[in-house]
Amino acid sequence: MKFQRILVLFLFIAAAGTVAMAQVPAQTTPTRIAVIDTEAFADPKTGVKKLITAYQTLDTEFKARRDEITGLRTRYEALAREVSSPAAGTTQQALATKADQARTLELDIKRKQEDGAAAYSRRVVELTGPITLTLNNALAAFAKARGVDILVDLAKNRDSMLILNNTVNITQVFIADYNAKNP
Question: CA-to-CA distance for 94 and 86, rounded, in angstroms?
Fold first, then answer.
């Protein structure tokens, strides 16, 4: 009697295992994963030429603003030095005037920096937005043509990624392909 119960239990477990195995879908093809480092797109030597050109244009356009702010900072630092270490014979009135000029200059610098940052952000979107769109589309087509199922961006996952096989990194191959197709 005990033997029959054990046999029935064994057959039940075997049947349940077979049913469970039948419900697990068989994987027909392995998932292909590749890695891309989008930070490399902006590398001046090996990056995406259109993107590099856009950033060079930005640099040229905003050079005058940067130079102006640098000049204002230099003037502010000179005033701050004069106020903190006044020359012999400098009156309190002269020191107060220089301190006021320094405060006004400091506010002007902050305002110009904020305005410049906002203008820069807008211009970055204007210049790089269309390039980024074509890059994303080209990257999707590139990955699909090579049978890549999952593409992971190292720039967004740098601290959490461990790559054991560096051949999955398609960054330089993609950049070369994109530059060739988009001179």
Answer: 10
| Distance in angstroms (rounded) separating the CA atoms of residues 28 and 30 | 7
Q: What is the pLDDT of residues 157-170, one digit of tens each?
A: 777 666 666 667 78
Q: How many domains are there within the chain?
A: 1
Q: Strand ranges (DSSP E) for 8-149?
A: 33-36
In Å, the largest CA–CA distance within the chain is: 116
For 157, the domain range is 2-181
Please check whether residue 34 is in contact with residue 168, taking contact to mean a CB–CB distance below 8 angstroms. Answer: yes
Round to whole Å and give the CA distance between 107 and 103.
6
Helix (H, G, I), strand (E, B) or coil at 5: helix
Residue 172 is classified by DSSP as H
d(CA 52, CA 55): 5
* Chain segment 79-124, per-residue pLDDT in tens: 888 888 888 777 888 888 888 999 999 999 999 999 999 999 999 9
